[in-house]
Design a protein that fits this description.
globular, alpha+beta, six-stranded antiparallel sheet, 8 helices
Length: 454
């Protein structure tokens, strides 16, 4: 009888939760308006930008342009279209094959650093989507040999990566919101926030990508772009629902103090045109592709697998523009695995009936060590640029208190020395005693696997 009562209570709770999550806009917290179904040109800020900024002083214009770039970059993440060719598993489900989706995948890829947009190009990810034997379909980074948490897909992004990409700040973790880059907004009301302001909770951040006003200057709608477990989305709220969300779901709103520095925006109209950009046709190579996606990076020592989908007369491997290896056709060959490749730039050219297509990749040389006794992290690469050193756990996770961990953007002097000194108060003799170094490459950025101190 007791078990039956508990079971009935659980059923009632589930029904109540279902009712609350499906309530209409006039109940509870006025919840959420429907996700926008129109394209990004409906954005009020974008639509009114030319008229509002006409004759504006250059200092203010730079700020407005920085906000516009933030919107465009956030939209590249929320509007990104992709159609899986097989099931792609993510944290709480999977994307079905042959169904078009919009918005990048959520996966906390801290251990391997394969954040889409920030580290891995949109093109590389799109080519991996088309390759059913790419790591996007074959690797799970929440299982051995990986150590990830809050993740599953090999490529993905998270809330702080979306916001930092949109604002053009160095991505570390959501604790950048509490750094000197940000300032609190004095009054926390809908009329006091602006486009490109950031909503902050201890474990989540989002960015405001549009605000529309009534004729008397009152806020009518606020749009938020964010990465949630279901992917990257943008949502529009009425004033009352946004007021509730700002004060009950988030802790506070903050503002990037240097929005005028957000000058870099790289359009990608071939894959994800936004803000009225004219779509540009693109032709992907489907005959063959490396298993990380075309134009991808491999760390020295990683196997490179070329996935082949059609017959060929020959496949020729080039390294730095010189022939490195070649393969003649074999029956039932589907993959070519290349091991222990020396560092350099590679391409595989697929010849068939005098037609040629190719796939490209780089093998990145790196040396990283951490001597705890000397308090020195050393780093070196012959074909990439070291840009960042950070302490982490074996899964790549950082702590929540920024001043307890070492997170250092490298200067030219650091790179010249090939090392950085770690202050004693930044060294922890616990799970955060691993180090990662991030390197800039021709195709994006690579992050070394977490390395234990010596």
């Amino acid at each position: 009888m007791k078990d039956k009562i508990i079971s009935n209570l659980a059923l009632i709770v589930m029904l109540l939760l279902s009712t609350l999550t499906s309530c209409d806009a006039d109940t509870l917290d006025d919840v959420i308006m429907n996700p926008p179904s129109t394209d990004s040109l409906s954005n009020y800020f974008i639509r009114t930008f030319p008229e509002r900024t006409k004759g504006m002083p250059s200092e203010l214009l730079m700020k407005e342009q920085g906000k516009l770039n933030a919107i465009k970059k956030a939209y590249q993440m929320t509007e990104f279209p992709f159609t899986p060719v097989a099931a792609i598993w993510y944290n709480y489900g999977f994307y079905s094959p042959n169904v078009e989706y919009k918005g990048l995948i959520y996966s906390s890829v801290k251990e391997i650093g394969t954040y889409i947009g920030t580290n891995v190009s949109f093109y590389t990810f799109a080519s991996a989507v088309r390759n059913r034997r790419s790591k996007l379909y074959t690797e799970r980074i929440d299982e051995s040999p990986y150590h990830g948490s809050n993740c599953r897909a090999y490529y993905g992004t998270v809330c702080s990566a979306l916001v930092s990409y949109a604002l053009g700040v160095s991505y570390g973790s959501y604790d950048f919101v509490d750094s000197d880059l940000m300032e609190d907004i004095h009054y926390q009301e809908p009329e006091d926030v602006e486009v490109a302001d950031v909503l902050w909770l201890k474990t989540h951040v989002a960015i405001i990508t549009d605000i529309s006003y009534s004729s008397d200057g009152k806020v009518e709608m606020v749009e938020i772009s964010e990465a949630i477990h279901e992917g990257c989305v943008r949502r529009q709220y009425s004033r009352s629902s946004f007021d509730y969300v700002m004060h009950h779901h988030f802790k506070k709103a903050v503002r990037y103090k240097f929005i005028e520095n957000n000058t870099k925006y790289v359009p990608c109209p071939e894959i994800v045109p936004v803000a009225g950009e004219e779509p540009v046709p693109i032709q992907f190579v489907d005959e063959l592709c490396v298993d990380k996606g075309d134009r991808s990076d491999y760390l020295l020592g990683e196997d490179v697998v070329i996935n082949i989908y059609s017959g060929y007369d020959s496949i020729v491997i080039y390294k730095d523009d010189s022939i490195f290896n070649s393969f003649l056709p074999e029956e039932e060959i589907h993959d070519i695995t290349l091991t222990d490749l020396p560092y350099g730039n590679y391409c595989a050219k697929h010849w068939f009936d005098n037609n040629m297509v190719e796939t490209s990749w780089s093998v990145i040389d790196y040396q990283v060590s951490y001597n705890k006794q000397d308090q020195i992290v050393t780093f070196k690469s012959n074909n990439s640029l070291p840009v960042l050193v950070r302490f982490c756990t074996i899964s790549g996770t950082r702590g929540h208190t920024a001043n307890e961990l070492f997170y250092h953007s490298l200067t030219d002097d650091d790179r010249k020395a090939g090392s950085v000194y770690v202050p004693s108060d930044k060294i922890l003799d616990d799970a955060h005693s691993y180090v990662q170094v991030k390197f800039k490459t021709e195709y994006g950025y690579v992050t070394t696997r977490p390395t234990k101190y010596q």
